Amino acid sequence: MNFSEPFKLSGLLGRFSPDGKCLASCVQYRLVVRDANTLQVLQLYTCLDLIQYIEWSSDSLFILCAMYKRGIVQVWSLEQPDWHCKIDEGSAGLVASCWSPDGRHILNTTEFHLRITVWSLCTKSVSYIKYPKACQQGIAFTKDGRYMAVAERRDCKDFISIFVCSDWQLLRHFDSETQDLFGIEWAPNGCVLAAWDSCLEYKILLYSLDGRLLSTYRAYEWSLGIKSIAWSPSSQFLAIGSYDEKVRILNHVTWKKITEFEHPVTVANAKTIVYKEVEKSPSVETERLSFPPARALTSSLFSTQSKYDIPQVPVSLQYIKPVADRANPKMGIGMLAFSPDNCFLATKNDNIPNAVWIWDVQKLKLFVVLEQLCAVQCFRWDPRQPRLALCTGNSKLYLWSPAGCVSVQVPGEGDFQIVSLSWHSSGDSMALLSKDNFCVCYLEKR
Asked: Membrane-spanning residues where (predicted)?
């Protein structure tokens, strides 16, 4: 495993291009595009203000940079560096911006969610979608890029509109049976749309492409409800993470619950492997060094290393009692993700912030628990194989696969605190992001 030198970064804005050839990063108002392998600078673009969001087009030929404070989006071309496009929403303001799946239209959501403006880079035409709802996930595209669903709110009721992305014509418009629609997400096969209510009402609705309600699922009433959802890559399972610290799995045939995964404080099953991170102090004695070591060497020699122990079950995990009378209490399943091969599901229960739970999807059983020394900030699956990378806000990278678990110290001066990470599409490298820097980790090919 090799690491690049750290490079400056702002706003955690570092993204690999979809084709895997480039890596874009932002330093305040500058956009830097590097070769993903050599990290040589290919292009340097200067924007009009502080960049708050970046996104690659699907064909990796364009990058949009959104400056929400100014209500401006700037688009840059990699093939023609002299060409650029500026979209100014003016007094309407700007709160969100994204590409359409064809990589030639930009969807801007104006302030107060008055409308979504669809700008065409090819014809310079403009279309408007009225009454978009101000919610967590209000726009969803099918994986094949043919259809777009938009959550809407009009006359104090929730609606969903489905558009054809080729010409932005309305295909279906129907009211969703929600009190306060919180998010929508298509199944990977594009056949079913999940829509779920805010945390005050436990309700998830499943719609077909033509707007028919296929099923409604409620696990309980009169308590905080859904916190997160994830579709399996095969579209066979829908995992629902709830505030009651459980994950419920629905199947795609009947849309009924087939099992639920609990996240207790004590792991008692003898068949579950628990990997517990423990610190090991460096064994090098300074007096024995016959030369003054370089600063970079010193930091790696004397920084606290860590490794994984496998304690005997039962194992008690570190639990934090949530403050019940505050908004957004730190409780329930805040993160969940299926592995790309459909074999595993990784989850995090916010009451037990230092642990990641990995479930065997075929056997519907708990497989592994990783307990870290610090709270887990982010985890991501390798796009090519069942391998999970996670970070906890320190200078270590953690990797799990069915073969075992490893903790790797990022070398270099100072403390590189990894708070987010993203995989390259090949699974051979990943970008590690801290508040002010990023570096690239290259993994050995098997």
From this structure: none
Q: State the Cα–Cα distance between residues 212 and 225, nearest whole angstrom.
A: 24
Ranges of each domain in the chain:
141-159+176-262, 267-281+304-376
Q: Which ranges constitute the DSSP H helices of 95-227? A: none
Classify burial at 116, counting beta carbons within 10 Å of its beta carbon; exposed 0-12, middle 13-18, buried 19 or more: buried
Each residue of 78-121: pLDDT tens digit? 999 999 899 999 999 999 999 999 999 999 999 999 999 999 99
Question: Cα–Cα distance between 48 and 430 in angstroms, integer?
Answer: 29
For the stretch 196-228, pLDDT in tens is 999 999 999 999 999 999 999 999 999 999 999
- For residue 207, CA distances in Å to 69, 150, 217, 289 come to 36, 13, 12, 68
State which CATH number among 3.40.50.1950, 2.30.29.30, 2.130.10.10, 1.20.1560.10 fits the domain covering 141-159+176-262: 2.130.10.10
Q: CA–CA separation, 410 vs 399, rounded Å?
A: 13
Distance of alpha carbon 152 from alpha carbon 195, whole angstroms:
12
Average pLDDT, the chain: 93
Q: How far apart are the C-alpha atoms of 358 and 247, rounded to whole Å?
A: 12
**What is this structure's pTM?**
0.93
Query: How do 355-360 and 344-349 pair as beta strands?
Result: antiparallel
Strand 41-46, strand 30-35: pairing: antiparallel
Interatomic CA distance for residues 175 and 181, integer angstroms = 11
- pLDDT of residue 441 exceeding 90, the answer is yes
